[in-house]
Amino acid sequence: MLAAEVAKVAASREPHAVNALFRQALTEVLPDGTVQPRWIADRELIGVFEGYGSVRDFADWCDATGADPGFEFGPPPEVVLYARHLLAGHVVHVECVADQHDVEPWFRLNPSGLL
Q1: How many CB atoms sit inside 10 A of residue 16's CB?
Q2: Is the pTM of this model over 0.70?
Q3: Residue 92 phi/psi, 5° resolution?
Q4: pLDDT at 91
Q5: Nearest-10 crossing angle of helices 3-12, 15-27
Q6: The predicted structure's pLDDT at residue 25
Q7: Residue 6's pLDDT is what?
Q8: What are the E-state strand segments in 1-115?
Q9: Judging by DSSP bridges, how do beta strands 45-49 and 90-99 pair with one another?
Q10: Could you tell me what percentage of the chain is helix, strand and coil, using 3-state DSSP and rounding each to the nearest 5?
């Protein structure tokens, strides 16, 4: 990936271009078949898992990258899953907002942390 390409995308702040750029870059460091989130560049890079199967994709991401997931309870019945970890030398933040009943088959929720 060329520095000029990264600079062009960063200057444009076009959401689809940012997402495509980081998907391409991370494909090189992620295990084959790892589902990537939608990448959003704000003050930091955030990957958001959304839609059907998002909790499973988040869980698979954590397994594939060795990320240690955490969670917070949102307004009922929401749970916010998140992981912040080092990937290829860069801090990566991913998150997933889902209903508690969708989260519980994949994660055992405990007020002191995920089990």
Answers
A1: 10
A2: yes
A3: -120, 135
A4: 84
A5: 150
A6: 80
A7: 64
A8: 38-41, 45-49, 70-73, 78-87, 90-99, 109-110, 113-114
A9: parallel
A10: 35, 30, 35
Give the tens place of pLDDT for each residue, 25-43. Answer: 888 888 888 999 998 877 7
Largest CA distance in the chain: 46
- 64: nearest Cα among 92, 24, 39, 97: 92
Instruction: Quote the pLDDT of residue 80.
Output: 96
- Answer for the pair 76, 103: CB distance below 8 angstroms, yes or no: no
Which tokens belong to 88?
A: 């290829």
Where the chain has pLDDT below 50, the residues are 115
Q: How far is CA 24 from the centre of its chain?
A: 15
Give residue 113's pLDDT: 56
Q: Which residue has the tokens 């689809």?
A: 16
Instruction: Look at residues 5, 77, 90 and name the one whose alpha carbon lies nearest to residue 46.
Output: 90
Q: Which string of DSSP letters, residue by residue, matches 25-51?
A: HHHTTSPTTPPP-EEEESSSEEEEE-S
CA distance 61 to 65: 6
The CA distance from 35 to 65, in Å, is: 11
